[in-house]
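R.M. (postdoc): so does anyone remember the format we settled on? I'll just put the structure tokens first.
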């Protein structure tokens, strides 16, 4: 019985801790080994982790340097409040890469400002 309890404790301690989603992100960060030959990038917003097509896409200007690449996504974020999955892909002429890994984030209402009572 003690041996079973010890195994249960070790399994529980070894379980991964769930990561907290970023709330209302403003910047995308990624790596690109073909950055020199890429014309631009596109960010896609997916409704789920396995959704085939993005609900919304927006172009991202090609950063001058890419180690890692960073770009503002503030203007292109979806307006609906929910958990979204973001991914990026490269564009070179008429060719596009597959979508990158998908990263979940929360799109939540911003807190009101300048609150006061009188």
């Amino acid at each position: 019985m003690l041996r079973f309890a010890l195994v249960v404790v070790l399994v529980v301690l070894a379980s991964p801790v769930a990561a907290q989603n970023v709330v209302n992100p403003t910047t995308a960060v990624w790596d690109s080994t073909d950055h020199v030959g890429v014309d631009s990038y596109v960010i896609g917003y997916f409704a789920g982790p396995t959704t085939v097509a993005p609900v919304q896409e927006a172009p991202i200007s090609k950063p001058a340097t890419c180690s890692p690449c960073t770009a503002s996504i503030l203007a292109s974020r979806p307006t609906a409040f929910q958990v979204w999955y973001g991914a990026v892909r490269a564009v070179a002429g008429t060719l596009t890469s597959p979508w990158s890994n998908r990263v979940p984030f929360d799109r939540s209402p911003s807190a009101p400002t300048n609150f006061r009572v009188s």
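R.M.: ...and that's the designed sequence above, right after the tokens. Also worth knowing: The chain is about 10% helix and 35% strand. The mean pLDDT is 82.
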